[in-house]
């Protein structure tokens, strides 16, 4: 009985180790209901954000968020709505980074996930969009 | 007595080192980049045919 328990514990430890190795070498798990929902929410919001990226009002920040870059390019009446859009987008993004780390069994990876996304958002931004580099905002 | 102490010390060291191997796995940067690209494709509708999807149920 004691040996059985020990064997079970050893097996569990082995499984855990293999799960980690599999995650380290293969793909990251992104097909969870939470991640899919966040992705859809961001996709729908993108229709409203895209013209703001193009006009330079909103830019892609270094920390994986979006930020109001040039408030003067937005009519005063619309600024509140745009700040709401930015806040909602950043909330989804923060949740996305957290969920990806958690779905892969490593909540401590959140900052790394965020940094990876920050780089990829900026690398893949369309020409004319503003992105935040080491020395400040630059137009792609 | 000394043997028991040495043995338990050895066991403790072994336990700690295996725990470290299990917990401190390197962040899979390449896999994360791939995952990020897949999600960015979806969110920004960069893939062929993805733009055809209707966006219903507006949220914010």
From TrEMBL, chain A:
Keyword Signal part of the UniProt annotation: yes
Signal peptide segment: 1-24
Superkingdom, natural source: Bacteria
Keyword annotations of the record: Signal
A Pfam family the protein falls into: DUF1318
Annotated InterPro entries: YdbL
Keyword Signal in annotation: yes
UniProt protein name: DUF1318 domain-containing protein
Taxonomic path: Bacteria, Pseudomonadati, Pseudomonadota, Betaproteobacteria, Rhodocyclales
From TrEMBL, chain B:
Signal peptide: 1-31
Keywords associated with the record: Signal
Domain of life of the source: Bacteria
Keyword match Signal: yes
Claim: Signal is one of the keywords in the record: yes
Protein's name in the database: Uncharacterized protein
